[in-house]
Amino acid sequence: MTAEASEPAAGEPQTGRPARTSRRFPLITRDTARPEGGGRAAPGGAPAPVRQWPLLTVMGGVGLGLLIVALDAFRPGTVVIGLSLLAGAALRWALPEVGMLAVRSRFTDMLTYGLLGAAIVLLSLMAQPNPKVTIPFLEDLVHFTVR
User: Fold this and answer.
1) Which of 7, 27, 43, 116 is most buried by its number of CB atoms within 10 A?
2) Considering just the CA atoms, what is the radius of gyration of the chain in Å?
3) Average pLDDT, stretch 43-71?
């Protein structure tokens, strides 16, 4: 056999590799890429809760905060929720593999968890009655936008 006989004819796809006719993205997604850092946080032989401990830590903190809110302690409960999200941002930054805590890119996850956690803590400390933190221009801003 010659080399020409073993090569596919013009227009036929090569075996094992589909012919790409366009540089556009395909209309149907065949698979998805795991987010950066989305690998197991523990070896594969470990039980599932151990492999996903970063996510379970954050979810446990949020659940504890919701329980505290349900027991009629609004401010401490929402602070615990916000601190849990900030802990999620810190875990996402510090650990190379965080399992299902990784949803998007590392930067986007850290920014999302960090901003939401900081906003929840700040808003819970500003809540009435007896706010622990006051920001002077916010009252003027509310009066300007509402009235």
Assistant:
1) 116
2) 25
3) 91
- Residue 20: the pLDDT is 63
What is the Cα–Cα distance from 19 to 13, expressed in whole angstroms?
Answer: 5
b/e map of 127-146 (b: 16 or more CB within 10 Å)? Answer: eeeeeeeeeeeeeeeeeeee
pLDDT tens for each residue of 87-142: 999 999 999 888 889 888 899 999 999 999 999 999 999 888 888 888 888 778 77
CA 56 to chain centroid, in Å, comes to 13
d(CA 79, CA 133): 13
- Return the structure tokens found at 51: 């492999």
119, amino acid identity: A
